TrEMBL record:
<protein>
    <recommendedName>
        <fullName>AAA+ ATPase domain-containing protein</fullName>
    </recommendedName>
</protein>
<keyword id="KW-0067">ATP-binding</keyword>
<dbReference type="InterPro" id="IPR041677">
    <property type="entry name" value="DNA2/NAM7_AAA_11"/>
</dbReference>
<dbReference type="InterPro" id="IPR027417">
    <property type="entry name" value="P-loop_NTPase"/>
</dbReference>
<keyword id="KW-0347">Helicase</keyword>
<dbReference type="InterPro" id="IPR050534">
    <property type="entry name" value="Coronavir_polyprotein_1ab"/>
</dbReference>
<dbReference type="GO" id="GO:0016787">
    <property type="term" value="F:hydrolase activity"/>
</dbReference>
<keyword id="KW-0547">Nucleotide-binding</keyword>
<keyword id="KW-0378">Hydrolase</keyword>
<dbReference type="GO" id="GO:0043139">
    <property type="term" value="F:5'-3' DNA helicase activity"/>
</dbReference>
<dbReference type="InterPro" id="IPR041679">
    <property type="entry name" value="DNA2/NAM7-like_C"/>
</dbReference>
<dbReference type="Pfam" id="PF13087">
    <property type="entry name" value="AAA_12"/>
</dbReference>
<comment type="similarity">
    <text>Belongs to the DNA2/NAM7 helicase family.</text>
</comment>
<dbReference type="GO" id="GO:0005524">
    <property type="term" value="F:ATP binding"/>
</dbReference>
<dbReference type="InterPro" id="IPR003593">
    <property type="entry name" value="AAA+_ATPase"/>
</dbReference>
<dbReference type="Pfam" id="PF13086">
    <property type="entry name" value="AAA_11"/>
</dbReference>
<feature type="domain" description="AAA+ ATPase">
    <location>
        <begin position="504"/>
        <end position="892"/>
    </location>
</feature>
Length: 1179
């Protein structure tokens, strides 16, 4: 430490007469102190633990220096220069000393610990003090304190105290105001402040109040401060140390959270209890199903393509299993702990899962067991790993397609060759259970990326002061205005939402009613964050975009193109193939577009790329030869030679080789599939056995394959079977199947494949012929390699993009997935806690609290939740809640009340109100409601605002004129609100076997009108949606549309939209939006279509008492209207359209007094259709 580096004023600079150094080696910068001997009256220098009596070379300075001693002022001496002469005695040395005299005596401060917050750490990094807390801590201790002896624990520092420190802190405060510091803490009285001087820096330190204690924190770290007068400085003795605010806040948060959890009234405690009850139910159901023994003869290939398996059982599992469940088929020797030990409770089971998870993920906290489970089967590869780790035997996941009285239909499995057992697969839930446990405990332990996250969530928690303050980020830039708002500027509320989200100290809640531009606001936030990032540092995955459903994540990611790169989504839907989701398709578009741009500028590279790819494939074939690789190679070479001079002979040779290779790959696998699809049991054969035999016979005929006559006779007998006949031939059919499978199953090849010399020679001749046309390929080798990967290696491209992409995307559940962990974890091994600067969660109101917390714990700087609690909420198990209510007799009433409050509203809604509480505490706004919609016709926008939002002070405007939503559909030209009457006399509502409701009359009316309009000239470029509150009605509409070839049945018997009606295309043939969607309300949130049909389904006969009387109980209202009474679902269903909303239903019921009580919104819509110029009633 040098006075020059401290930038303080030197009071005296003087030489002393030569002295005996006593063997000490003096050097520039050595520090000491001067004393005045009370016995001799001489000056003494204390340095290096030694005492030297000194004489000034200029005695005239003596009185000036001694004056400070009279005032008892502390001093500090620095050796400025050292002088020695050859003719002096060996240890004789002369020193020039610089002296600083302080304004008062030394002060004993004792231990001083200063907390470094993230902002200070960033300031320290910017001035080169280090890159981590540990290195910065060491640097500050070295730069800000010093020792005057070899006793290192005796430390000194130079500080400003009292009024001087207050003045400096006030100056810093003023300076901060001038620099637009955002999210400032409420103004505190500055007390016990000090300014610590160090090498080329000053630390302005201030006392802050935490919840239960005070601490010293850094107000600001200033480099190269102005020269400081010694009149403001004091010399202090202290033991200086620095600690990290993250750890302090984590400790504080953990202490508070444990108290809150203990009193059982907190938000997390509510969901702990729900999860525990849910887990016990899962174990109970698993034990009811138990272990089911399965023999090979009980299993058959099922389905037209043999992709499913039928398992015949001696039990009826219809009351225990649904198509949402998963089963595990495994060896009978496999241990299943929760079945072997009937007394094992959920807490014990979940704690066992957790121990494994802690080791696997490398978490450092002692996570306590958390009771919960998930209702969904994980789609991660991690799920398969978990199955293998439990089973330790060959096992299969059974995805249930259908549950019948004594039969299960399952997907994608092989028929077992020996006895197996089937159990309910809790492993399917394990992945999500573990992730939820880890997130919850990170919050409790204060180890989430934002350590005080739990204090933000819990209503009874108090936030610590002195938290992170960041420079304000402006909401818009010219670039963002041009890119995100090219046509219309953002509304004032949108701009405010962007500003608040960018500058929140922790969490921001954006409520976006339908069509108000939530996605646009999110993209603007991401683009501004990108602009503010330090591009000299890695930005890999700095922002996480998440959502409850894959659709929500994909819709948002597809709107992003940050730094001209497509965003990367991790994780897939259940059963979804790679390169099959929307983000992968967009990635392919980007890949091919990039290739096209390069070829446009350097067209000659095409031939070089083709040459390189053929060369690489030839090398691969020579290394690992196979007939299929040879066939691909020959076909590629043949295609490349088309149009090349002097290639006719070589092309002929390649054709001959191709024909020969192709003949070795006839459709034997097809025959095996047809054989496996043969039905061998009586129920199965009666179902579709004749069709399966016919398919096999057709294949045998097509391939001109001859089989033994006795086998042919059996097949022909089976093919002409009639239901009135017996099935005595089934044993013989089984023998036919076994024998033909042996015949057509390829024998394992024990010999090693060798590369064919004729193929190698033909390919080499091709390369030689192409080489002359690719002479310049070495000059462009790097570009050629890049293009080759772009064209032929999409997986490598995706991995490379992930390395450089700012934005990662994943659903809430999969934000902890294995693949995203591998890319995001610091070490690359997928271990430890994941961390993002910003986490944005769209459709946040739909996610359950336990799932929402998974990505929330990963946010370091800001959490941005976007959603609408007036639309679809998260799903809770009503039967489970009733059970919990019955078991809660001994629970205190105020705990019950809190539980009901927490469980009935979404976490989004809960946090929306909690954020308003926080604003009252610290003055920082954390919520906003967007107030202008641009999706719908203004008549429909106003209707939705009035019916669902205005009551809560959340009404919004519809600024676009009606002309923007014009259409010419026949019979409803330019009408926005349409009611098609389906009176009760056309047919009542009905129920299917699953008790879901449907109404055939409505379905047929919708199908007829949809066919008319979607095929018309006026409607061929419009998108259509058909919404129902009931799954059975969706199926009924699908069935009705099949008569018009708009829908069809797939191989599993499910109705799907035919290809012609699936998508709308632009002039270049590129798909731009979904043309037709038919589904329940739940599948429509976040979607929009030009025209939407809403099928009401509910109806009452003309003489029903419900059409006459006025006062009805809630139960009676529910009996009449059912799901229509759900305000959230109704809100979604009437806000999906752009141009026209068409409600199809019984208008007589809607006009009855009971409707005004139960569904006033539908009554209001009917009146709108009836009375408004842009509404119409059709019959």
């Amino acid at each position: 430490m040098r006075f020059k580096q401290l930038n303080i004023e030197i009071n005296h600079l003087f030489w002393i007469e030569p002295l005996d150094s006593k063997g000490i080696s003096f050097k520039q910068g050595d520090l000491g102190q001067l004393r005045l001997s009370s016995r001799t009256g001489q000056l003494q220098l204390v340095i290096h633990g030694k005492l030297f009596t000194i004489t000034l070379r200029e005695p005239i300075l003596f009185n000036e220096i001694v004056l400070g001693f009279d005032r008892a002022n502390a001093n500090l001496i620095e050796i400025s220069r050292v002088h020695q002469q050859k003719d002096w005695p060996k240890d004789s040395v002369q020193l020039e000393l610089a002296m600083v005299s302080f304004n008062g005596s030394e002060i004993e401060l004792g231990p001083i610990d200063i907390v470094l917050d993230p902002r200070t750490l960033e300031q320290a990094k910017s001035v080169g003090l280090g890159e981590s807390f540990e290195t910065i801590q060491v640097a500050l201790e070295q730069y800000c304190s010093f020792s005057l002896s070899d006793e290192l624990e005796q430390q000194y520092a130079i500080v400003m105290l009292g009024e001087s420190a207050l003045d400096q802190l006030k100056y810093i405060e003023k300076n901060e105001d001038n620099h637009n510091l955002t999210n400032k803490e409420p103004q505190q009285k500055i007390k016990n402040g000090l300014v610590l001087l160090g090498n080329n820096l000053q630390l302005a330190v201030q006392q802050y109040s935490a919840v239960d204690f005070d601490y010293l924190g850094v107000r600001k770290l200033v480099s190269r401060a102005c020269s400081t007068s010694t009149r403001a400085l004091r010399l202090v003795r202290l033991q200086l140390s620095f600690s990290e605010q993250q750890k302090q806040v984590a400790s504080l948060a953990s202490q508070q959270m444990r108290k809150i959890i203990t009193n059982q009234k907190g938000y997390l405690a509510t969901w702990d209890k729900y999860g525990s009850t849910e887990g016990e139910q899962l174990l109970k159901r698993a034990r009811e199903i138990g272990c089911i023994e399965v023999m090979p003869e009980q299993c058959e290939v099922y389905g037209a393509f043999g992709r499913q398996m039928s398992i015949y059982l001696n039990r009826d599992l219809r009351t225990l299993l649904t198509t949402q469940d998963a089963l595990l088929m495994m060896s009978p020797e496999t241990s299943v702990p929760y079945l072997e030990d009937p007394e094992m409770d959920w807490q014990t089971f979940s704690s066992q899962l957790l121990e494994d998870y802690k080791q696997k993920k490398g978490f450092d906290s002692n996570l306590s067991n958390w009771d919960q489970q998930s209702n969904s089967v994980s789609t991660d590869a991690e799920y398969q790993d978990n199955v293998a780790s439990v089973a330790n035997e060959p096992s299969q996941i059974l995805k249930i397609v259908k549950v019948e009285q004594n039969r299960l239909i399952v997907e994608g499995v092989d028929i077992p060759s020996t006895k197996m057992i089937i159990v309910q697969s809790i492993m399917g839930d394990q992945v999500q259970i573990e992730r939820r446990m880890a997130a919850r405990n990170a919050i409790i332990e204060g180890k989430s990326a934002m350590p005080h996250l739990g204090l933000l969530i819990e209503e009874d928690a108090r936030l610590p002061s002195g938290r992170v303050q960041r420079p304000e980020i402006k909401p818009l830039s010219s670039f963002v205005k041009t890119k995100i708002f090219p046509k219309n500027p953002p509304t004032k509320t949108q701009e405010k939402a962007i500003k608040l989200a960018l500058n929140t100290p922790d969490i921001m809640i954006i409520q976006g009613p339908p069509g108000t531009g939530k996605t646009t606001v999110i993209t603007a936030i991401i683009e501004r964050l990108n602009q503010e990032l330090d591009k000299s540092k890695s930005i890999q995955g700095d922002i996480l975009v998440s959502g409850y459903q894959h659709d929500a994540v994909e819709n948002l990611l597809n709107r992003l193109s940050v730094n001209d790169l497509p965003a990367i989504k991790f994780g897939q839907r259940s059963g979804e193939k790679e390169q099959n989701n929307a983000t992968d398709i967009k990635l392919d578009e980007w890949r091919l577009k990039t290739v096209g741009n390069i070829y446009q500028h350097v067209p000659e590279l095409k031939e070089s790329i083709a040459y390189l790819q053929l060369e690489n494939e030839a090398i691969a074939y020579a290394t690992t030869p196979s007939d299929s690789a040879a066939l691909r190679l020959v076909n590629k070479a043949k295609a490349l030679l088309i149009g090349i001079p002097n290639s006719a002979e070589l092309i002929s040779l390649l054709k001959i080789l191709g024909t020969e290779l192709n003949s070795q790959h006839l459709g034997e696998s097809d025959g095996i599939r047809f054989l496996r699809a043969l039905r061998l049991s009586k129920p199965a054969f009666k179902d579709d056995g004749v069709q399966r035999v016919a398919a096999l016979m057709a294949w045998l005929d097509e391939e001109e394959i001859t089989i033994e006559k006795k086998y042919l006779d059996i097949l022909q007998q089976a093919m002409i079977w009639q239901p009135k006949n017996n099935l005595d031939f089934l044993p013989q059919l089984k023998e036919v199947k076994q024998q033909l499978l042996k015949q057509f199953t390829p024998r394992p090849q024990l010999k090693r494949n060798l590369a064919r010399e004729d193929v190698k020679l033909a390919i080499q001749r091709t390369l030689d012929l192409l080489q002359d046309r690719s002479r310049n390929e070495s000059k462009n080798r790097a570009l050629i390699d890049y293009l080759s990967d772009l064209e032929g290696n999409p997986h490598l491209v995706q991995e490379a993009l992930a390395e450089y992409n700012l934005v990662y995307g994943a659903t809430t559940g999969q934000s902890e997935g294995e693949v995203i962990r591998r890319f995001k974890s610091k070490s690359g091994d997928g271990k430890g806690y994941l961390q993002y600067s910003t986490v944005i969660i769209d459709e946040a109101a739909r996610a359950s609290p336990r799932d929402l917390m998974i990505p929330m714990v990963q946010a370091k700087d800001r959490i941005i939740l976007v959603g609408d609690h007036r639309q679809l909420p998260h799903i809770v198990d009503e039967a489970l809640l009733q059970q919990m209510e019955q078991e809660s007799d001994d629970i205190h009433e105020d705990i019950k009340e809190k539980f009901n409050q927490h469980i009935t509203s979404s976490m989004f809604q809960y946090l929306f109100h909690r954020a308003k509480q926080l604003e009252q505490q610290d003055g920082i706004p954390r919520t906003i409601t967007l107030d202008a919609q641009y999706r719908s016709h203004p008549l429909l926008g106003q209707f939705a605002s009035d019916q669902f939002y205005k009551l809560y002070g959340e009404g919004y405007e519809s600024p676009l004129p009606a002309s923007k939503f014009s259409h010419q559909l026949e019979g409803i030209e330019n009408k926005a609100a349409i009611w098609i009457d389906a009176p009760a006399r056309l047919g009542n509502e009905d129920r299917n076997a699953s008790k879901s409701r449907f109404r055939k009359a409505e379905a047929e009316m919708i199908a007829k009108k949809l066919k008319q309009w979607i095929d018309s000239e006026q409607g061929k470029n419009l998108s259509f949606g058909v919404i129902s509150f009931y799954k059975a009605q969706v199926n009924e509409v699908m069935k009705a549309l099949a008569k018009y070839q708009i829908t069809e049945q797939d191989e599993a018997g499910n109705y799907v939209v035919t290809k012609h009606y699936q998508m709308l295309f632009d002039h270049a043939g590129k798909p731009i939006e979904e043309r037709l969607r038919i589904g329940t309300v739940d599948s429509f949130q976040g979607m929009e279509f030009d025209v939407v049909f809403l099928s009401m389904v509910r109806s009452q006969s003309q003489n029903s008492q419900f059409l006459k009387d006025r006062n009805f109980s809630a139960k009676q209202q529910e009996q009449v209207f059912g799901h229509l009474m759900s305000k959230n679902r109704l809100c979604v269903s009437v806000t999906r359209q752009k141009k026209a909303l068409i409600l199809v239903g019984d208008s007589q019921l809607i006009q009855a007094p009971i409707a005004e009580q139960s569904v006033p919104e539908l009554k209001a819509f009917y009146e709108l259709c009836k009375n408004h110029a842009q509404g119409v009633l059709l019959t």
